[in-house]
Amino acid sequence: MNTFQLIAVAVILLLGGGVGFILFKKSSGLRSILKAKQEAKNLRENAQKEAEKIKKEASLEAREKYLNLKSEFENKTRQQRQKLAERERNLVNKEENLERKMQIQEKKERNLSEKEKRLDHREKEIGNKEKKQQELMKKATEELQRVSGMTKDEAKKELKKMMEDQAKMEAAQTIRQVEEETKQKSQQMAREIISQAIQRSAAEHVVESTVSVVDLPSDDMKGRIIGREGRNIRALELATGVDIIVDDTPEAVILSSFDPIRREKARMSIEKLVVDGRIHPARIEEVVEKTQNELDERIRQEGESVVLDLKIQDLHPELVKLLGKLKYRTSYGQNVLQHSVEVAHLCGIMARELGADGRVATRAGLLHDVGKAVDKEVEGTHTELSVDLVKQYGETEAVSQAIASHHRDIDFPSVEAVLVQAADTLSAARPGARRELLESYIKRLEKLEEVANSYNGVAKAFALQAGREVRIIVESQKVTDDKAGDMAKEIAQKVKDELDYPGQIKVTVIREMRAVEYAR
Could you tell me where the beta strands, DSSP code E, fall in 353-445? Predict the structure, then answer.
């Protein structure tokens, strides 16, 4: 095979290979096209299925939303209809109420018009009566002038005087009625408050005397207390300031002094000497000095105990000490400290019941008699001394004024001052709280009857209930009912001004009319 043939074969082979390659590529492209068409068809079918699915879901969702909106709309519509129905009912009720009110108003207007007619008729009748009355008054005036011989001016003066007297009598009766009603109400309220206060602050009372008794282990101890030639008893009396009475009383000596603190100091000293057994002047002076220190401490503790019990704060230490001294001070046999504590309790309770200042009332009640702790050492009444002491030791003006008026030396400046005076009277007036000498008691009863008998028209006067009431029988021909009331006030005021007495005295004026005839 020559070269040309080889070239030709090569060319043919190349052409065949190219055609084959072209045919292979063509067939491969057809397959790709068919595969792409198939995939496109599948995609279209899947897309249609997905679209239908989405369409169905959208349709279901839209239907569900439609049903929800429809249900919500129906609920709202139903609620609005209910509200409208309720409003309609309310409107109907209001219309009915308004109609009833209009009917009532129309009825009232008819009644008012009828009343106006009646009033017009009454006014006309009154006018006619006034005219007739004026005519009658004119005729009566002329007749009175003719009969009495008085002029019109004189008759006016006489009539004016009569009317004034009548008005005064009516005013006095009205005032007496109001006073009686006020007294009844105030007495009832006062009794309730006082009874509650007394119940809540009840205290025992022990009447104390001016002597103390010291018990001894045996009568032999009396000789040792007296000592050789009486030197021991003289040393005791000189150191303590009390009178020591050694008599036939078995196993006891009596201490006599008007100063309770001295008596207590002597009692404590003798008891210590008896226990110690060494009794001689030097030992007596030593024991009395120690006893004095112990007694001072006991006085201070007693004052502090009282202040703590009453819950009083910021009280000056000197006032506390003076309060402790009051334990050994008596007034009419009543322990002054016990009395002061009771007055403080009563004042505080009554002040709280009345809405007053309980702190001021309690302090004033406790300190109202503090001057009695120094009244034997300083000149002046116990009230003046109490006021000076509380001012000196920093108490308020309200407290000092309440103390100053507790015996009515000045007018009551406050409600708390009235409560202090009332509580002081209550504490002193309790049965068994105080004792009086028989002579002064009888003089007071006689003075009470004397004051009552000094008034004109008094037939008899009797002091009753241990001088706490005076009953006065008046002559009915000389004393009228109205004058009897005035007489009771005047006698009560005179008793208050002229007599000194604990508590209060009731004045009762009795007027009795008796008509007596004899059948013969």
Answer: none
